[in-house]
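Input.
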Amino acid sequence: MRIRRPHISVPAATLAIFTMGATLSAGEKMPRGFFRGTVLSWEGTPALGVLTARAADGMLFDCGYDSKSYLELERQRVTVAKLREGDRVEILADRQPGQTACYVRTLEVLTLPAPRSARRPEPTKASAAPKPAILRHGNQTIAGLVTRADERWITLRTRTGQEVFLLRRDTRFFGNGLKMEASDVTINLRVSVEAAANSDGVLEAFQVTWGDVSNVP
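Output.
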């Protein structure tokens, strides 16, 4: 079933406080980085509010979102109103510059709850839907300044030295909460790369994210 929104209105003052970095607490502040869990609820409006998710160990975590947050469901950008209780999600949690409040940069619905029906019809060869593409993810996140970029490689200058990433055919790019292309990665751009080493020990980039978060007017 869909998440039931609270039967209360959110005062403008509350939204202003959230915009400055405060959250409507229902659980712990979500840690920075990639978080996987299930959707529990959300408060606010589809353009501004706080999402609560449950981790695998049962702990509840809060993270704020706004109109710049990129929420993806079945390869389409959606608002938080499209999420359902129990949806398995992967969230890239961050912090707004100079603030400590958790902020949803990206959210991807991994699987949807099965429909509650007594019986499912068996798909025929003609009607069977194609299997959705599997989105692969890295096991580490590295941030730094782009010193070189082309259609195959991205090189970053990090605090510990230089890191080189191989771009995959399915590498995803997000700038200021919007889907971008590899050609949008420019020299001196500060980015965060989700990556993993392949069988040859080369770091492959699965997702490249950049941009500051602007407050909602």
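Residues 63 and 102 are 5 Å apart (CA to CA).
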